[in-house]
Amino acid sequence: PNVFITGQAGTGKSHLLKYVVETLQGKQHLNVGVCAPTGVAAVIVGGSTLHSYFGIGLGTGTKSNLLKKVRQNVPAKTRIDETDVLIIDECSMLSAELLETLDMVAREIRRDGMFSDEPFGGMQVIAFGDFFQLPPVHRYDGERDRSWRPFCFDSPVWSELGFSENIIELSEVQRQEEGGFIDLLNKVRTGNVEPRDIY
Predict the structure, then answer these.
(1) What's the whole-model pTM score?
(2) Which of 28, 54, 95, 153 has the most beta carbons within 10 angstroms of its beta carbon?
(3) Angle, alpha carbons 120-25-21 (nearest 5°)
(4) pLDDT digits (tens, 9 = 90+) for 64-106
(5) Would you say the C-alpha torsion 21, 23, 28, 29 has a positive or negative sign?
(6) pLDDT at residue 113 above 60?
(7) What would you measure as the largest C-alpha separation in the chain, in angstroms?
(8) What is the spatial distance between Cα 30 and Cα 82, in angstroms, rounded to a whole number?
(9) Could you tell me if 187 and 197 are in contact, meaning their C-beta atoms sit under 8 angstroms apart?
(10) Residue 147 — pLDDT band, cuts 50, 70, 90?
């Protein structure tokens, strides 16, 4: 099943992601796509950007133009066709708009397969991230257009993938050991810092 893996900083999301990739590729011999919304995040996990992986360029334009672009990009089309599991890291930076674009592209490109009516054309999707961290990436179409792009969980595709029900939350902080410091970091994460915490 598709699954959303979350947890505060230091709980081991990146470590688990690498373990999942190694297991799926090495032991189950599956074709795994490892992606993230930005180049920096993608490099950290040894993957590529979602835009590059799906061959959508900037992801702008009409549905037909995007599909034409992908169909002409043979490596991207092949990747989409052959992907068994798609792993998306830092999904908090993924906007609802981009999630819907990727879903549309995957369904159309994989239409000839038996899972054509399934979200993302039937590929399994595993999302990693913490929505208390980085927000969706904004695209500025000119200086005046700074419209808010909602989180990916605002999209119906998020629910169709089953992410609203299939959630694994890592709760034990591995990176730090001092309890008071961990509590302070969690207060900062949730915006509940009190004056006494600063001193």
Answers:
(1) 0.83
(2) 54
(3) 75
(4) 899 999 999 999 999 999 999 999 999 999 999 999 999 999 9
(5) positive
(6) no
(7) 62
(8) 9
(9) yes
(10) low
Structure token digits, residue 172: 């034990």
**What DSSP string runs through the chain?**
--EEEEESTTSSHHHHHHHHHHIIIIIS---EEEEESSHHHHHHTT-EEHHHHHT-TT--S-HHHHHHHHHH-HHHHHHHHH-SEEEESSGGG-BHHHHHHHHHHHHHHTTTSTTTTSGGGG-EEEEE--TTSPPPPP--SSTT------BGGGSHHHHHTTTTT-EEEE-S--S---HHHHHHHHHHHHT---HHHH-
- Separation between Cα atoms, residue 113 and residue 104, nearest integer Å: 15
Q: Give the number of C-alpha atoms closer than 13 A to the C-alpha of residue 52, restricted to the C-beta side.
A: 12
Identify the residue whose tokens are 């208390």.
132
Q: Hey, what are 43's tokens?
A: 């490099």
* CA 29 – CA 4 distance, rounded (Å): 22
pLDDT tens digits for 121-141?
999 999 999 998 878 876 555
Dihedral, 94, 98, 103, 109 alpha carbons, nearest 10? -130
